[in-house]
Amino acid sequence: MSSLVFGVIVVICLSYLSETSAQCPAFMSKRFGGLKGGAFTDKSKANNGDITAIRMECGTHLTAIQFRYGNVWGPKHGWGRSNCGIWWTRGKKVSYNLAPREYISGATISYGDYVNSVRIKTNKRKLPKCGSSKGEKSKSVSGKRLKFVQGRSGCIVDAIQFYWPTW
């Protein structure tokens, strides 16, 4: 019953957000990375439910990232053009399904002008690092339950931010 109530609150809050400039109680992390690439947000995809899976491409940088919200995959961010291989190494594709009642509770990001690596933490495990840790800076962020991400991407993930509701 409590997950139903939580889901109703999330839907009401996200619907309210899309119609007003108000905000639900939440924490949007700072942006990790640079200003290149095009802006993206998965905010509208969060209406499909909690994050249930993650796909990443791990090269010398975080090459691409994609989240499944409920049963619906959001768009892939990164590796956005056919000529990306001229400048970047695509890397290994990895995929992680979250177990029932498992959710993303944190991340450690290595970054500079781009997102060099990310290591996702759930309430049950730590996923392997994706990318290299050669960034100028490293930062860990956490919240109650990750709702969606936004950032910038082109051939790679240039920047990422995390949205953590506080309820």
Record the SSE blueprint:
Elements: H1 2-19, E1 26-28, E2 32-33, E3 38-41, E4 51-58, E5 62-69, E6 72-73, E7 77-78, E8 92-97, E9 104-111, E10 115-122, E11 130-131, E12 137-142, E13 148-153, E14 157-165
Antiparallel strand pairs: 1-14, 2-14, 3-13, 4-5, 4-8, 5-6, 5-7, 9-10, 9-12, 10-11, 13-14
List keywords for this structure.
167 residues; Jacalin-like_lectin_dom_sf; Vitelline Membrane Outer Layer Protein I, subunit A; Jacalin-related lectin; disordered N terminus; mainly beta
How would you sum up this structure, described in words?
With 167 residues, this protein is mostly beta strands. The protein has one domain: Jacalin-like lectin domain (Vitelline Membrane Outer Layer Protein I, subunit A, Aligned Prism). It is built from one helix and 14 strands; from the N terminus they run αββββββββββββββ. The strands form three sheets. Strands 1, 2, 3, 13 and 14 form a five-stranded antiparallel β-sheet that branches. Strands 4, 5, 6, 7 and 8 form a five-stranded antiparallel β-sheet that branches. The model is unreliable at 1-23 (pLDDT under 50). Residues 26-166 form the Jacalin-type lectin domain. Keywords: Lectin, Signal.
